[in-house]
Amino acid sequence: MMKYFFGIVISIVILTGCSGQHQSAEANTIEEPEYLADYVANPQVPDDRLLQKAGQSTTDEKGTITLKKLKQMDQTYTIGDMELTIQDVKLIHLEPDESLIDYFHVLTHEKTFDYIKMFVEITNTAKEKRKFAPVALFETDQGEKISWEKDIYLERLNDTLEGSQSRSGNIGFIVKDSEQINQFHFTTSTLFDQQDKKIAEAKKIEIKW
Question: What is the pTM of this model?
């Protein structure tokens, strides 16, 4: 009887080990997109680079995130001398670590929440400095309006760009009624030179899931 019992236990251990190895092997086959190769992980938001299919989750010291929707884009928009490329758009559910609750508390009172994020690259094609913000105002088709100050990533994408300089990173906004959102749009800032002279008008960009 005892031999039979230990046989069952050993079988369970072996099966569990094989299952774990399978999951690890599967995770290792996921490759991050090339445009994310040089991205440095954000200090407040978990790294989502390997989340490439809806339902995938990952956990690190900043919390747990689950990918709900993904739209690959690789689309470039021109605003005067500025090129704005949107590489991907994701809807993500975040359960932040307790150490970061205060950071998000100024943006939401919910302990867990959804946010829409975009990975973008901006390039100043002029030889002179330019002042530009990829997102000045973010709006969903559910009537929610969010200003650039509420970006959860704060990756300095609004800083002045030197001539011929490029910068890439994430922009993300906490949203309500995420399951009802079918599309959203955002308006860039106006493009200015280093003397604050207007170079180009803001552009409105619409994205549908």
Answer: 0.85
